[in-house]
Amino acid sequence: MQVITFTPLYMERVWGGRELEQVYNRTLPAPNTPFGESWEMTDRPDEQSVVNHGPLEGMTLGQLWQEKREEIFGVGFEDEECFPLLIKILDARDDLSIQVHPPADIAPELGGEPKTEMWYIADADPGAKLYVGMKEEISRDDFQQAIENGTVDQVVHAITPKAGDSIFIPSGRLHAIGAGLLIYEIQQNSDTTYRVFDWNRMGLDGQPRQLHVGESMRCIDFTDSEPSMDKPNGNTLATCPYFQVDRLKLRVGASVGNPDPERFSIVTVVDGALESADGRKYVAGDFLLMPRAAAPLTASEDASILQTTIPR
Q: 206 and 73 in one domain?
């Protein structure tokens, strides 16, 4: 079985841009429109990735999950109703809202879904920032006062990352992506986000975007003080019950297959090029689903990749 690729779904965002066009030579759906997200693999009720090549062309990711689960994805997923991950590229030309995702123990009460994610910095303008966690000694009361004063940006911790850095964002961690960053995001299959501050700006419709202050205050981990970017543990950038992300460097001629031969993986090309057994070439910004029995991919150029798996 060969690797499976999908047609990206592009999402307009007030903070987005056109970097996907410039950096990855993609054709965006509309001119002069800010696209902030490219959903590379999604199995959501209203947003489905569609296979764009090979014998499965035209099938959705959801159909593959329901009809060919063990054949393509492997063993141990019997209790998962849908594909458990959501994979995106984020193009932030302006600051995203300061936000939080609900922890598993709170999400049901709020009518949402828990969401843990990780970010890999694909590109960063000089001085671009991430906002993650609280500044030292900021209490819940201090934060509430900042919301009322419109000064949340002054109490959130800022980090200046560089390309190749990564950070784990567990549910409950206050965060925002700053302007000038291109990010690969690997997350639980969830689309629940609570915005607590949006820089006092208007949305694409000219109206203030909806905030979720009450929900956010329920979810934020106020003990999460001044985190830093993560340090890899060997090849592993992030690991949790929902996913593991490893960064691998391949010399020309080296090959990569699924770490667990009984389960699928997702390969993201960071730079260089890979080739599949059927002669297709994959370059930076390509996301590939490797079925459980997929033939290995071979580096046709020196390459750096991310490989995402789901721990047993």
A: yes
